[in-house]
Amino acid sequence: MNIEEMNQLLQEHIPLCRFMELKIGSLDAVSITTSAPLEPNRNMHGTGFAGSLYSLAVATGWALVHNRVDLACLSGQLVVKKAVIHYKRPVMADIELAANIDSDVSNDALKEQLFSKGRIDFPLIVNIYSKGKKCGYLEANYVVVA
């Protein structure tokens, strides 16, 4: 899936992404960067709203895992099993997010895991930045269920 297709998928099927103005900057089989403006994601203090930061991070990770599964020609139900967010400092400007998947796992290994266990686990960390400073991160476990 290319960037344009993934942006369209997020905007059409996850309406909150459209409202938050989440945009993909880069996307490949093992990494993603996204961004969103502060304005629709701010709180009454003019900083990033915690709920928006959580949602942006979850959607960023979801897009990366969805793309990885799509590139492996697999299908299943993709859900977030568990996600914990850690806030380090206020987000004072536009939001940038980045995540990576373990690149050592082959498509064949993913297929084997899905067919033998009925699921694939994707542990992931999505980092949240603003003005080049790390403001927090999401530790999440995404699961694809056959």
UniProtKB/TrEMBL annotation:
Domain Thioesterase putative: residue ranges: 4-145
Top-rank taxon: Bacteria
Annotated protein name in UniProt: Thioesterase domain-containing protein
Lineage start: Bacteria, Pseudomonadati, Pseudomonadota, Gammaproteobacteria, Alteromonadales
